[in-house]
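Input structure tokens:
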């Protein structure tokens, strides 16, 4: 991708975010756009990670402001919040493709997984209690390849580990 193509794709994204903010009844601010940009370039980031990334563009952006913006953008449907066990909430801008996630239970790595059946909802509950189900969030949990490989290596005793570290 040339720098001109990259620039026009960033401009198109920015324009779509501006339109989406207005459609949600939100003011278009440089802080909101910076957080959306951070979420786009750092998918599955925590609010703190998004703050660090957005602060590259806006050094004056305060962490509490970022947390407020993330909550605001999630409520407005411009960010997707991903709740994973034993981790802070994660955020992404990929909203409309009905994908799921796989998380390594050891290192916490999170990856996108295509929808199991290709349409929403991917799962149908045995009893919907009269609700029209729109979406089912699926989180697969397992071990990523590097973590699984570590588990299959013979484990050293504590003493052997110390001896290998200190020669």
């Amino acid at each position: 991708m040339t720098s001109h193509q990259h620039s026009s794709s960033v401009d198109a994204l920015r324009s779509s975010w501006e339109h989406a903010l207005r459609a949600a009844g939100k003011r278009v601010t440089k802080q909101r756009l910076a957080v959306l940009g951070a979420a786009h370039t750092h998918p599955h980031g925590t609010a703190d990670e998004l703050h660090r990334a957005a602060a590259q563009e806006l050094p004056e952006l305060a962490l509490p402001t970022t947390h407020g913006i993330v909550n605001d953008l999630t409520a407005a449907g411009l960010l997707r919040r991903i709740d994973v066990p034993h981790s802070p909430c994660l955020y992404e801008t990929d909203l409309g493709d009905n994908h799921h996630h796989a998380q390594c239970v050891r290192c916490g790595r999170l990856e996108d997984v295509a929808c199991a059946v290709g349409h929403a909802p991917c799962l149908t509950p045995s009893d919907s209690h009269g609700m029209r189900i729109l979406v089912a969030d699926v989180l697969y949990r397992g071990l990523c390849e590097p973590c699984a490989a570590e588990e299959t290596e013979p484990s050293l005793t504590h003493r052997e580990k110390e001896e290998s570290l200190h020669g």
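The longest helix spans residues 3-23. The chain has six helices and five strands.
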